[in-house]
Amino acid sequence: MFEEAQYFAPVATGEDGSVVVQLATSHPGFADSAYRERRNAIAALALKHVPGRAVPEVEYTEEEHRVWTLVARELAVKHQKYAVREYLRGCERLALPADRIPQLQEVGDLLEPLTGFRYLPAAGLVPLREFYGVLADGLFHSTQYIRHHSVPFYTPEPDVVHEVIGHANALASDRFARLYRLAGGAARRVETDEALEFVSKVFWFTLEFGVMAEDGVDKAYGAGILSSYGEIEEFRGMDILPLDLTVMGTTTYDITKYQDVLFRAESLDHLEDVVGSFWATCDDDTVARMVADGARARSSV
What sign does the dihedral 13-48-68-209 (CA atoms) show? Predict the structure, then answer.
């Protein structure tokens, strides 16, 4: 079973209540005891959050704010060249601070009057159905930690840069926010694991790593591309296929490297017509037929 956020470092809670984020030995912060303590403390805050109450505040360090400032500044320049206009409009509407890491409560306070979305803190892995399901309610699960300062333009897992610069700016758009809600509704409607995985893969290849034709060139609207300093420079050189629900929903991908297969919507209207309509109406039978059709098509090649 594929799980959303499978790339998160596992979080363990000891019998004494201690919280430990289990970083891989290859993680940039693995050998940094101070960073590991910060990750543990931030994860503990998220685990203590009570739904319906304000998101706990993280007392970010000056070093952490410097990482955000550097990455936010460089990404803003790249967005002007590579991002679709609708995302840029979301950036203008949301007006995130560029000189400090915003608190998730603050991000939600900015978003709610625009599109009704708010943020929930995540310590780590969020089960697939829960992660997507709450989108239907205008809620988005987000991490609060930031990548290690030694590699400010790289993170092996989604951090607050990805969750906020990538997703919150899109969620500030009425049209993109509606697509997020439709994805959440689909995740709640389907019952089988197969159908849920299909829905999640369509999300991955669109709202995470989607490409859109605009003014005769390929632009990015997916949060995964728009929050990655390196990938945003490389995505146009990847294998970009036409928007196809069956292919997207049955394609496997490697989360540890740049996505080498992407899918292009011809316009935002096209994305809404194809993907939005699918999420608005799909059920287990719909997905089962699509998976079967895809298998038959592959076997006939």
Answer: positive
Query: How far out from the chain centre does Cα 166 lie?
Result: 7
Cα dihedral sign, 71-178-197-120? positive
Among 186, 215, 203, 248, CA closest to 81: 215
E strand intervals along the chain: 11-13, 19-21, 118-121, 139-142, 210-214, 217-220, 239-242, 261-265
Look up residue 111 and give its amino acid: L
Do the strands 118-121 and 19-21 form a parallel or antiparallel pair, or are they unpaired?
A: unpaired
Return the amino acid letter for 28. P
Contact 295, 251 (CB under 8 A): no
3-state SS assignment for residue 155: coil
* Residues taking part in catalysis: 162, 167, 208, 227
Per-residue pLDDT tens for 224-245?
A: 999 999 999 999 999 999 999 9
Residue-wise pLDDT for 275-294, tens only, equals 999 999 999 999 999 999 88
pTM: 0.95
The identity of residue 38, as a single letter, is R
Q: How far apart, in whole angstroms, are the C-alpha atoms of residue 78 and residue 115?
A: 25
DSSP-assigned beta bridge partners for residue 19: 13
Please check whether residue 146 is in contact with residue 161, taking contact to mean a CB–CB distance below 8 angstroms: yes
